[in-house]
Amino acid sequence: MTVGASADEALVAAAQRGDATAFDALVRRHTAKMYRVAYRILGDSAEAEDAVQEAWVSAWRSLGRFRGESAPTTWLYRVVTNAALATVRRRKPTVPLEPTADLISDRIAVDPEGHVVRTEDAARVHRAIASLEPSQRIPLVLRELEGLSYEEIAEMLDVPVAALRSRLHRARAVLLARLKEMRDG
């Protein structure tokens, strides 16, 4: 167990005992990560902010039911993923993901031409990801962009690991096909 995980567990335990300061510390520690997940699923900053807010309200309400069978971060990813999915279900078509500088790359190239090429490539990848069905986009975002394990994602999405691997395989295949279409078209 990492130091961050044990600190999160301590904060959750304190929050479950009614310590609002501990819950506030969880909010400060994890809001940026939760926003990043919501944004990558929804592609809209206002909707992502709303989803994160809904996720925190849901987490507060369900805090007493959290039994610690998974890491607090896994639980919070699941809560924000569910909030983002609820937003996706409420809207009609998928909104294209608009890449932002902080999501495209943390490293700005010294070479302006190279930076433009990388920015265009990243924008194309983000558009292709946004075009995926939510059942493919969400596990892809969680695995490839957030770096979660297959087991964590399967637990979050309440699917067997084998089914998750199959979804990810299909998502990667569709993503590659869409990127090829964008490049050739």
Q: How would you describe this structure to a colleague?
A:
There is one protein chain. The protein has a domain at about 1-95: RNA polymerase sigma factor, region 2, helix turn helix motif (Rna Polymerase Sigma Factor, Chain: A, Orthogonal Bundle). Helix content is about 75%, strand content about 0%. It contains nine helices and no strands. The relative contact order is 0.11. Mean pLDDT is about 85; it is low at about 100-110.
How are the SSEs placed, and which strands pair?
Elements: H1 3-16, H2 20-42, H3 45-62, H4 72-90, H5 101-104, H6 112-130, H7 134-145, H8 150-157, H9 161-184
Helix pairs in contact: 1-2, 2-3, 2-4, 3-4, 4-8, 6-9, 7-9, 8-9
Shape: elongated
**Helix vs. strand class:** mainly alpha
Share of helix, binned: over 70%
> What's the CATH architecture name of the domain at 1-94?
Orthogonal Bundle
Strand content: under 5%
CATH class of the domain at 1-94: Mainly Alpha
Q: What is the CATH H-level superfamily of the domain at 1-94?
A: RNA polymerase sigma factor, region 2, helix turn helix motif
Tally of helical runs: 9
Keywords: DNA-binding, Sigma factor, Transcription, Transcription regulation
InterPro entries: RNA_pol_sigma-70-like (IPR039425), RNA_pol_sigma-70_dom (IPR014284), RNA_pol_sigma70_r2 (IPR007627), RNA_pol_sigma70_r4_t2 (IPR013249), RNA_pol_sigma_r2 (IPR013325), RNA_pol_sigma_r3/r4-like (IPR013324), WH-like_DNA-bd_sf (IPR036388)
Protein name: RNA polymerase, sigma-24 subunit, RpoE
GO biological process, one term: DNA-templated transcription initiation
